[in-house]
Amino acid sequence: MRESIGQAKRLVNAIGAELGAVFDRAGERLFVVDEHGREIAAEQTLLLFLHLIGKAGWAGKVAVPVTVTRRVEEIAQPFGLEVIRTPAAPAELSKAAIADGIVFAGAAGGVYIFPNFLPAYDAVTSLCTLLELLAGIERPVSELVSELPVSHVVHRQIACPWALKGLVMRVLAERLKDRELDLTDGIKVLDERGWVEVLPDPDEPLVHIYAEGENADVSAELEAELHALVDEAMSGQESEVGAQISS
Fold first, then answer.
1. Were both Cys, which of 54, 119, 150, 196 would link to 222 (CB 3.0–4.6 Å)?
2. In the chain, where are the structural domains located?
3. Is the pLDDT assigned to residue 246 strictly greater than 80?
4. DSSP of 70-90, one letter per residue?
5. CATH topology of domain 40-146
């Protein structure tokens, strides 16, 4: 995939194209290259879709996983679009996409659903819709992307034996019970700095931590705090860091 994106970047520059697009082998994921031959980060492409959908006057609801940047609400709500958060599993997003009123569903991995046409991941549909949305806007893609809010979501994976996953989640639920939580999927802690979430991997001996603050330093700080609690839960040891985050 990286090789294909690299080829697309060179081709865009060589022919002076206004846009480049790459599909994965399954034809489900869309990756976009701007007119300067620069890859647009998948999460920024998601925000670009939301911005264009709002500008086009689409009405209804949009669905995104709980792990996606809160910049989604920042873009969608001024246009009157209601944001529905789903569990992180791809199947959950597909299920949400067929609910009444959903006009768009997407995740940060380059997958997008336009249920009025096809309630499934489809890169061709995504590209055609993107081109349609861009058709009436006489501005370069790079300029549109530069005006989008910047996401500072960080994602870490922690090795966790299968036998300890349940214990880790139970310990975290107890330690964080007095915090503002979102339990849509895993445990998501909300505070004035941003949010941080822990999710057990369904297929591998891992737990995932996602965090987002107003800048990269705050995101790293939030991730480090929850990371410390996960390590503590696995080791069974008490720590001052754990006491601080649960206070």
1. 196
2. 40-146, 154-245
3. no
4. THHHHHHGGGTPEEEEE-SSH
5. Alpha-D-Glucose-1,6-Bisphosphate; Chain A, domain 3 (3.40.120)
